[in-house]
Each structure stands twice: as C-alpha cells, then as structure tokens.
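Appendix C reproduces, verbatim, an entry submitted by the partner laboratory led by Prof. M.T., so that reviewers can inspect both the input and the predicted structure.
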Amino acid sequence: MKNSEAQFLTVGYFNDGIAWARDANKKLGFIDKEGKWIIDPQFDFAVDFDPGSELARVKVDDLWSYVTKDGESVVISDTELWEDFKEGLAMGRKGKMYGFFDKQGNWIISPQSEGVRGFQNGYAAAKLSKKWGIIDKSGEWVINPVYDGIKDVEVIR
C-alpha cells in the first residue's frame, strides 16, 4: 500500500453530490464526489448548499456573501446579518429587527421581529414584544407571540 498525503484538511458532508473542503492553504472551496474542485478554494468560511435556494453562505476576509453551485457570487447588501439559507430563505437584520430575504436579496418577511429562528418544516419561531410565536413563510402568525421561548418547529402527523 502506497502512502500519500491527504488531499484535504477537512471535508463537509456531501449534499446533492457537493461538499465543502479545506485545502492545504486553509481555504475552502467545493468538491464533487470524485474529489475534484467544482469551486476553487478561496473562502475563509463556507457552509453546505441549501436545497431551496441552491446557495451556500461564504466569507472572504470580513465580507459575507453567498455562492451558487456554478461559483457565481451573490452579494446581498440590504442586511446587517447574513445567515444560512433554510428552506429557501435566510435570516437578516436591519438595526435591531430581524426578517427573512430570498436568494435575490428581496425581503420576503420584512425586519419586524426582535428575534427569529431559521425556517424548519415551513415555519419559524419569531419574537415580538419579548414573547415568541410561530410564523409561516408569508410572515403571518400561526401561533401568536405569547411564549417565553420556542425551539424549532417539528411537524407531527
């Protein structure tokens, strides 16, 4: 058996045939299942692609943006916070208020909550007047904000 050096320092989980990977220079890019770079290592931080938006959050120096599977950069400037896309929407912030934007940077749910959690199963926890409730993807309350805390939403059938 021949000894060889590892090609990557770390590798994420494969999602739809793509995983992030860190090279010897400690930069992150994205590889296919054969270990070939499909997006060259250039990022200081990267996460998995979201199936709903087909974007991955990345960071270069102190600048956050998103990248497509083709390696195109998507810069969203109308927010002060860039979170991972979950179910096609990403959490953002303007001032002290939180909302959700789509992959074009359009606010789908305007920043009007004191806090939010990412979407899961079509719903997200949101905080208003120091109380938590549940909103849907249109921003409508499905459970009014009356609770001291709420975790992620699970669908039980």
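The mean pLDDT is 93. Additional entries are available on request from the coordinating office.
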